[in-house]
Design goal:
By secondary structure, this protein is mainly α. It is built from seven helices and no strands. The N terminus is likely disordered.
Length: 192
């Protein structure tokens, strides 16, 4: 019975996160799609953000990635709770920091996959392979970009998310520009 309470609590949290993750995945796919279109054509109507050949597959892959990043830490916590003798506090802190670093590095490595998929240059498998290859080759510039846009989005979310109205579009455009540089694709300077 002592095992049931944390399991039920973690499962209810997981269900809430699961329900929240699908709209988040779709929103990110729309943001990437819209930023790519703006990079190529200039200002586009919001309805064009929702048009794209691979919007559904990109949403599903983002959804799977978010689920992995949510459920793996929950499973690890359940494993640590279930042990007969709990690990020392410092071991939990070190393991948590290591998990954050691993998830952050892998997240940076897969961050360009939606751009390659939505740009539609080849099959889904070839887009994923090319995205990973280019991201590994440009890892440190992407890391620096994420070091800038990550905290900017955190600050943007502090006032009930109002600041995200400004920081998210800028982040998507910055990542789109990085994608165009990495893929050597079309880059159009926006002029008024």
């Amino acid at each position: 019975s002592s095992l049931v309470a944390p399991l039920v609590g973690n499962m209810s949290t997981s269900v809430v996160l699961f329900v929240f993750t699908l709209p988040l995945s779709y929103g990110v796919a729309l943001g990437v799609n819209g930023a790519l279109q703006q990079m190529d054509r200039g200002i586009v109507p919001f309805g064009d953000f929702m048009r794209g050949q691979r919007l559904v597959i990109t949403t599903m892959l983002l959804f799977l990635w978010y689920l992995v990043t949510i459920f793996v830490p929950v499973a690890a916590m359940l494993f640590m709770v279930d042990t007969a003798t709990p690990p020392p506090f410092m071991a939990i802190i070190i393991a948590g920091c290591l998990a954050v670093v691993v998830v952050a590095v892998i997240s940076i490595l897969v961050s360009m996959v939606p751009f390659y998929l939505l740009d539609g240059r080849g099959t889904v498998a070839s887009c994923i392979g090319q995205a990973l290859s280019d991201t590994v080759r440009n890892f440190f510039p992407l890391l620096l970009l994420w070091i800038v846009i990550g905290p900017a989005n955190v600050v943007g979310s502090l006032l009930c998310g109002i600041g995200l109205i400004a920081t998210l579009p800028v982040s998507f455009l910055a990542l789109s520009y990085a994608y165009r540089q990495m893929s050597r694709g079309q880059i159009q300077l926006l002029t008024s």
